[in-house]
Amino acid sequence: MKTIQIDSALVLTEREVPTPDPGEGEVRIRVDFVGICGSDLHYYFEGANGAFVVEEPLAPGHELSGRVDLDPSGRWAVGTPVTVHPARFGTPTDGTEDAPHLWPGGSYLGSASTHPHTQGALSEYLVVDEGMLRALPESLPLERAALAEPLAVALHAVTRVGDVAGARVLVSGAGPIGLLAAAAARARGAARVTVVDVLPEPLARALAVGADEVLRLGEDAVPADAFDVVLECSGAAPAVSAAFVAARRRGVVAQVGMVPDVARPVNLAPAISKELTVLGVFRFRDEIDEAVRMLADDPALGQVVTHVVGSDDVVRAFDVARDSSVSGKVLVAAWPDRT
To answer: Rounded to two decimals, what is the model's pTM?
Structure first.
């Protein structure tokens, strides 16, 4: 089979490798679409995602959809459309018994955090544990289904916050996760969702997926003390500081966007004086099931996908995905010319 791997910063190589055979409790899927995530961009453009360095060829991709190709148990029919929960969970620790996504010793598709690296979905075929599969409703096309993983992250952010029914929610950053966070907040009952970004093009996409209001930094002022909940999705230090200003007294700020594993200046004074609750958000537990239902019920979420690029032009796909002025979510169509 063909696979595309990151060898080091700015080096992508298509290779022929043996087609994997599923073992007991495993299923092989034929990959149709792979979304390019922020971590994939870091691996390609920088050769590392935070502390996780590419030390051997790594196939990226943990956002995917495809069809069952081979199930030795016979429980999954060949051709069944699926998406995949990309985590294999590790070992429980004290205080995390109900949070398997935080257990140490697990793995995540397309990640250099493990050695050997956990290969991702940018291949013709992928073998996963049967429990990682999620069957797709008939109303959910494979292209839109590739958004299930990032939407699950957004839903988990709202889960961390708690009940947002009737809340005034600010989403900071209108990249794909920010757009889906806005949709997640709306689906969970937020009264009003405002999205802020520095660029007009992502803000236009935010309105298309259901934001009530958008604010462009540099032109519009973000009101202070005005939001019950802030979902900070950019990861930029100035945006984190601004989130503390925007939240009301005893409001909640959830840090969804990943930040570099280095010291960065952030103004904590508003968080202290307003007694804010500040939450970290990391991946998700089981919200991918809710994500699949949402994507099936709301075709408008498909507008988060702005580009579908063939695997024969994957370098362009990464370049386009890096430029948020022209792209939302970029999908790679995995070898669409297969017979």
So the answer is: 0.96
